[in-house]
Amino acid sequence: MLPDGRYSAYFQANDQDGMGVIELNAGRLTGGDTIISYFGTYSQDGDRFTASIRTERHSSGHAALFGHDNVDISVTGTSKDSTGAGTGHVKQLPGAVFQVVLVRMPD
User: Fold this and answer.
1) Half-sphere exposure of 14 (CA within 13 A, CB side)
2) 26-70 pLDDT tens trace
3) Comparing C-alpha atoms, which of 10, 11, 8, 3 is closest to residue 42?
C-alpha cells in the first residue's frame, strides 16, 4: 500500500517520457511539473491502486507529454512498500498508453 506523502513520478507515453512530483493524501492526488498541474483521486485495495487524474497547463513552455495540455488519465497499478507502478489510458487520445512509476520521497 502506498502511504500518504510526496512521490517522484516517472512517466512514459508513446515514445516520450517525463517526470514530476505527486502528493497522495487520503484519496486525493495533487502535483505537477514545470508546465502542467495534476489533480485527481486515487483508491487502494491491498497492493492494488487506481487513480483518476486531470492535467492542466500552469506555465508556458515546451509541449506537454501528450501534445495536449488538458487530459484525463485513468491508471491501475500495484504497489510495494513505498513504490508503485501502473499503466493507464488517456481519454482524449484513444490508443495512447501511459506508464508511471512512483517512488516515495523522504519527509
Assistant:
1) 10
2) 999 999 998 889 999 999 999 999 999 999 988 887 767 666 778
3) 3
Q: Cell numbers 523522504 correspond to what residue?
A: 106
81-106 b/e (C-beta count within 10 Å ≥ 16 → b):
eeebbbebebeebeebebebbbebee
Count the Cβ atoms, other than its own, within 10 Å of residue 48. 14
Please give the grid coordinates belonging to residue 58.
500552469
- Ramachandran bin of 13, using left for φ above 0, alpha for ψ from -120 to 50, beta for the remaining angles: beta
Length of the chain: 107
What number of other Cβ atoms are within 10 A of residue 23's Cβ? 16
Strand partners, 24: 5, 29
